[in-house]
Fold these 2 entries.
Entry 1:
Amino acid sequence: MEKNTTPLILISNDDGITAPGLRVLVEEMSKIGEVIVVAPDKPQSAMGHAITVTAPLRLKQNFIFGSILAYECSGTPADCVKLALDKVCPRRPDIMVSGINHGPNYSINVIYSGTMSAAVEAAVDGVQAIGFSLCDYSAEANFEATRPFIKQITETILANPLPYGTLLNVNFPKTESIKGIRICRQASARYAENFDERKDPSGNTYYWMTGKFINMEEDDNDTDLWAVNNNYVSVVPTKFDLTSNSFIQHLKHLL
Amino acid sequence: MEKNTTPLILISNDDGITAPGLRVLVEEMSKIGEVIVVAPDKPQSAMGHAITVTAPLRLKQNFIFGSILAYECSGTPADCVKLALDKVCPRRPDIMVSGINHGPNYSINVIYSGTMSAAVEAAVDGVQAIGFSLCDYSAEANFEATRPFIKQITETILANPLPYGTLLNVNFPKTESIKGIRICRQASARYAENFDERKDPSGNTYYWMTGKFINMEEDDNDTDLWAVNNNYVSVVPTKFDLTSNSFIQHLKHLL
């Protein structure tokens, strides 16, 4: 951020422009800088890092946040950020924040998360980026306890920019008494698939995705999953270079 | 893989069940083991790691590969793998292969790639996984030069399983004379957005996504981008733990 200027803050999410979590983020960011919102016009949860290459995109101004410049976009969260950076923002944002997601994006959820894909998209473009998520799927979730932490984390990153290739994945526990912040690693966990098989009125089979979340590191206290389960805010420094560097030498002996 | 048994090989892709690249992969895998195909019923490029949680999924048997068991699925590549593992495969596959994608998935493309998301999904579930891509978007792309490498890499991994958390991202150059295999890291690159702005017949604006690919590491010869640009097969050991471990200590001093 340039000194003595108001930071420009781009906001998006994956629950859509009307989501209560987005409104909380807009309110907190308005205390820090000039805000621009470009968010999906409908919920886009679990969109991963999808982008729209085979259809055109639409942008429409939305006055839901009063005097704050806001657009709804017909695309995915990653589309929103791409369009915002190219067509909406008058200059490069000092930071991009995503969320607050209704539901956790800790552990393996990060790879499915539209919230995080928006933040990753900004980070790939060289913009400071943070994804915020609350471990409560409810539309009536209570975000109040998250407010001071959101402000603190965002101001810290504005003052101490992350190196290229790194962004933050922040998850809040579902509690009114948060104990503090923990810097963590992504927990190893997965979903055990268990599709619910049904018949439609014509007798044809269809499937609903369900899955049991399996924590494979229950005993470790340095993971994001442990942090939120113990009422801490988890902050994971996250990257989009997926190379397993430690395995390169071994592989050179095999292939 | 258990000794003295035919390996069970699950195949998916993101270009859809009729894509020529999928057929080449089915042919090569049939030389190695028993094959099951579960692929999208329509193209799903750039779907990232999207999964379908708000709509039901359909599976329909397809006889496009003759006696090989094949299903088309209404969902994303990641959906295909989840459904295949839960509802189609008679036992755990020994390996899952994805592709051959029509188009590159090197460098930053990995985060947008439906091909790689299918492979990642299998790997999260603990199944050995490889994504194969050819650096040629054409539907008439020539895959012949890739065949011996696909067989070699797959057999090597079946004989030397990857540790949990690691899969392979394999990209083939667009050439008939491939020089060999290079074990690489993911190149640092990004797309410079440049949306094409148009007016529809009603006078409303819409946008087509375009973007110029920018290689930020042109001088380095240990990246996947360098390898394919120099007619080598790039093999990147890839992981889905996105933690930037090297940044954890620094962040602990800031927050």
Entry 2:
Amino acid sequence: MRKGKCDVAVAGATGAVGREMINMLSANNFPVNELRLLASSRSAGQKLKFKESEIVVEELSPEWIKKNRVDIVLMSAGGAVSLEYAPLFSEKKIYVIDNSSAWRMNPAVPLVVPEINPHDLAVDKYIIANPNCSTIQMVHALAPVHRISKIKRIIVVTFQAVSGAGWKAVKELESQSKKIADGDFRELNLPKNKISVFPHQIAFNCIPQIDVFLENFFTKEEMKMVQETKKILSSEIEVSATCVRVPVFRGHSEAVNVELSDDITKDEIWEALLKEKNISLIDDVSKLRYPMAIDAAGKSATFVGRIRHDESRPKCWWFWIVSDNLLKGAALNAVQIAEELIKII
Amino acid sequence: MRKGKCDVAVAGATGAVGREMINMLSANNFPVNELRLLASSRSAGQKLKFKESEIVVEELSPEWIKKNRVDIVLMSAGGAVSLEYAPLFSEKKIYVIDNSSAWRMNPAVPLVVPEINPHDLAVDKYIIANPNCSTIQMVHALAPVHRISKIKRIIVVTFQAVSGAGWKAVKELESQSKKIADGDFRELNLPKNKISVFPHQIAFNCIPQIDVFLENFFTKEEMKMVQETKKILSSEIEVSATCVRVPVFRGHSEAVNVELSDDITKDEIWEALLKEKNISLIDDVSKLRYPMAIDAAGKSATFVGRIRHDESRPKCWWFWIVSDNLLKGAALNAVQIAEELIKII
């Protein structure tokens, strides 16, 4: 770092999250000295805007890393690329904030939501993991509650937007929706050749599968929520999830049933949430106000509402948590990690 | 009844559920002698098809009930109409199978899912309630499990199709989706004048509100699921729900976390479900097979899949339950009630 400014690289710069990382560096006024954009050879040569300048995308390669030096890399290039390249950066004592799942459960790697566990960052830990989108917004909203009464159990059901699966997924929902709309909705089931990114048609449907299935019959996405929540909040919390893809472009919604350790009131929960950084409480059902994906899209906060006591059991509460999966769920959280990081390096 | 055949009336015949009631009478070969179609004055005079004939819709009025006689009325005309007219029919010892919520929690009124509690029907109980769509499919799928191990607790999150709110709601999702598709998805948030049936935009969004809010901050839909499940399955079951409207035309999906009384195996659960009438088990994640709304639409079964042990707690299981909200969730269940009824009257 020179004069408090960083040389930053975004690796995977042309992807859905990579582009938002560039936007968030600008929107958050992150102290960038020079920004380098990296991607696969396929995308190298493209130009992307950052503030007033256009930056040419360079090819991420071992040679690039040998020849160049930056302070921080924001990486969103998938697990395989991350497993190969993050160690090459870290050997050169370059910090990598990685958006893939490759490093998250590595005990040596901090898994950070800056509002919750910035203290897990350390000068000598060069690889830092950005949690899964559906985990970030949930733990962000629940951490203040956990602080006033330890959470014992979380049951979560997600309504996840297609942009979490990348630009091709966004285009697939667009083209499927357009095809059905152009047919005046007479045929709601599309032929198989209209389906490629998702395992089944996503337009006007709900798919109870995100990522691959594991041996325990849960999906990898569901187990990410379990394991990452335990790592970030507390290993003692019992977590179980059903993750569902819905025909929404941007903004994950989550219905969360939480069992606390104490009898606390709704006022106490509201108070804890109102004090929390980057949490927006939208919880006035008398005016039909609650968080929704179309309102959260493009915003930086995690939105919480529909807070109510689950009358079937003491100490159990429902929450409805919504956030932009590309922002707080990915790019923004990564930039916020970088903001914490530069305080200590 | 004459020679085993009934005179049947469908009240609310022109609505989304009413039309399906007519279809189901035909599809199930219900022994209809004469079919009468009733609706408000606004819809009277319309002609609807039943098997090979066209039937003119008549106006439902106290005069009609005075002058005419049928054996069974299938009613789907909303709570207010039901409260006014069901007693007029029952006074004449005409059976009314009512699809509204008006009578469901009345202790004198049977609330019936024919696979579960047909024995609640009785010769002298002329008003019979058809449960809420989201309740029917859930209890239908869970009843066989409850028989092998008493259910202690149900936590359910729903993904409900717009057709549950009637034809206008279907048209609203169509017109909103078309507007956004015609704009090539550049503008995803529609102006307020495109929103009328639902409190907010439903296209490419999830709305965590179905029906009105009650004093306990739950919606009426959520409390229907609680109260009706207790009435149908067992008052001892703890139930809590979050009900969400999603941009799907037909077919409600439900993620359900169930706590049982005993340690049972997945094989035992499968076996119980495979034996159950009208349940279709679609649970082979190795082939990415699980129930989905677009596959359930137009079908009569309740589809169950993604059955897995919730590893966070003993005796807890996840289910993913999908059914056509207009068929098993409404019209078909009503006709199936009528089928049980004619066995005893």
